[in-house]
Amino acid sequence: MRIDVVTIFPEYLEPLNVSLVGKARARGLLDVRVHDLRRWTYDRHHTVDDTPYGGGPGMVMKPEPWGEALDEILGTATSPAGTTPAAGTTPAPMLVVPTPGGRPFDQELAVELSGAPWLVFTPARYEGIDRRVIDEYADRLDVREVSIGDYVLAGGEAPVLVMVEAVARLLPGVLGNAESHQDDSFAAGPMSHLLEGPVYTKPPQWRDRGIPEVLLSGHHGRIARWRRDQALARTAANRPDLIARCDPSSLDAHDRAELERLGWREGSDGRFWPTGQHVEE
Ligand SMILES: C[S@@+](CC[C@H](N)C(=O)[O-])C[C@H]1O[C@@H](n2cnc3c(N)ncnc32)[C@H](O)[C@@H]1O
Fold it and tell me: Burial code of 207-226, b = ≥16 C-beta within 10 A, e = fewer?
């Protein structure tokens, strides 16, 4: 996968050289290119911002440097992501625009992005990028405005680090054990609306704390069931909104009994609700 990041703080992306992403780059699984937006400015101060039309506080990123940067990076890429490029051209990237006003980033979107051959990220500063830039490229690329959470950061570089790491660990060959993300919180399938439960390693006794007996039993069925119960309990306690969204067909009889034991009740639609909160539609 190729990833381009355009930023006024290239040094902020240095963590992409370490750990899992750094190793994936070293092994040629990821081709990450970080560009300084100021390369596409021509005045003495390398200006990238100006005052907002309509007035108000803060500055807005000027469209010209972004347009020139993106045109140069896109080069010969001509067809929207997912469509077949004309002979002799490169398939166009997906353009990922970090913004608090975007679609929430989640595991499902990480999986989708991990299937793209090329991603271009445009982390902004100030009050964001002049809207015309997003509209201009939405005409020729698959553009995604994405938020990493309901809070406002000073810039989009930290969101890019978050998204690149979530995407990179899903790429074939990046994780040592290809199956290790299948049991993760939010993983597609049985875990899609559940949080992973607690994990333990050696020694079997630490201070005055042991580990749950079942994990020493060697009984794979009982261990899997225990892990599932722990996942249900943690999700019910910390993210009840996820339990309410669980697809009824993903819950077996034991899951249902466990949720009832945790104080949840099954509605007529098969979904679970905290006791006393279900409103029949
Ligand atoms: C100070 S913020 C601009 C916030 C903008 N005025 C608003 O209220 O939506 C500057 C930049 O940081 C990035 N950013 C801040 N919070 C973010 C979030 N929760 N998710 C993704 N990007 C974010 C975006 O690139 C944004 O353009």
Answer: eeeebeeebeeeeeeeeebb
